[in-house]
Amino acid sequence: MKRLTLIFLVVFSFHWTETLAQSEVLRGIYQGENLYVKNPISTSGVGFSIFEVRVNGEVTTDEINSSAFAVDFEAFGLETGESVVVELRCKPDCTAEVINPQVIMPRAQTELANVELRNNGKLTWQSNNETGNIPFVIEQFRWNKWVEVGKVPGSGNGRTNKYSFSVPLHFGDNKVRLKQRDHRGVHYFEVVTTRSEQSRPVEIKRTRVVDVIEFSDNTFFEIYSEYGELVTYGFGNVVFVKDVPRGKYYVNYGCQLAETVAKR
């Protein structure tokens, strides 16, 4: 009877300890640098807060029984650009702090080559040394500003990758650029240009309207009130304005800037 009681107490104690443990999980990309962690004394006053570190599910052999330690990724044979998951297992009310989490955040340091914009709107480019699946944002210069027209997900590996996107060109000369955004800010790539193969510009069919604004072809558009407030924007050849108050509006579309439309 005593033996059975002892076994029960051991099992219960182990379960209780595991329940009280908590974890902080960081996910990112290995980029050749190690993580550094502050490891304070536990709230009980005995030992340090973090008692185990796992990298991609494997327990590290790093010495973590100190006020600060490094998570050595090289010991796991990781390659630059490889996904990494770090789990810091710690005691209750853990106050551990990762000093440099940015070292595993994806960076927009891609090298682009063979960026080309054809006169039918096909944009193509090639990337090298991607360190994370950061999307490529495509912007087109129209209405005296850069306007986002689409996104393409980045592959996020260190290999050579090829991409393409169909840009809705407007009549005449077109300028397009690519950009990526990471935790450090925005990184812009080179501007490419082409002249559209469209034979004539898009037009507004009527400048006095009741229910709809119609364009002669599909186009990006922006509609502003006479006070400069953005009313709506989008892409297409019809804009429904039945519920828009009467008044004067300014429409950006195609390569046209601020054409006046009266809503009756």
What does this entry show, briefly?
By secondary structure, this protein is mostly beta strands.
Secondary-structure map:
Layout: H1 2-20, E1 22-29, E2 35-38, E3 50-55, E4 58-59, E5 68-71, E6 83-90, E7 97-98, E8 111-117, E9 122-128, E10 136-142, E11 145-152, E12 161-166, E13 173-182, E14 185-195, E15 208-209, E16 212-225, E17 230-240, E18 247-253, E19 256-263
Parallel strand pairs: 15-19
Antiparallel strand pairs: 1-6, 2-5, 2-7, 3-4, 3-6, 8-9, 9-12, 10-11, 10-13, 13-14, 16-17, 16-18, 18-19
Structure description:
With 264 residues, the protein is mostly beta strands. The chain folds into three domains: 18-104; 111-195, chitin-binding protein cbp21 (Coagulation Factor XIII, Chain A, domain 1), CATH 2.70.50.50; 208-263, no CATH class. Helices cover 7% and strands 50% of the residues. The chain has one helix and 19 strands. It has one helix at 2-20; strands at 22-29, 35-38, 50-55, 58-59, 68-71, 83-90, 97-98, 111-117, 122-128, 136-142, 145-152, 161-166, 173-182, 185-195, 208-209, 212-225, 230-240, 247-253, 256-263. The strands form five sheets. It has a five-stranded mixed β-sheet with strand order 15-19-18-16-17, with no helix packed on it. β3 and β4 form a beta hairpin. The longest helix is centred in the first third of the chain and has 19 residues, at 2-20. It is elongated, with a radius of gyration of 29 Å. The model is unreliable at 1-20 (pLDDT under 50).
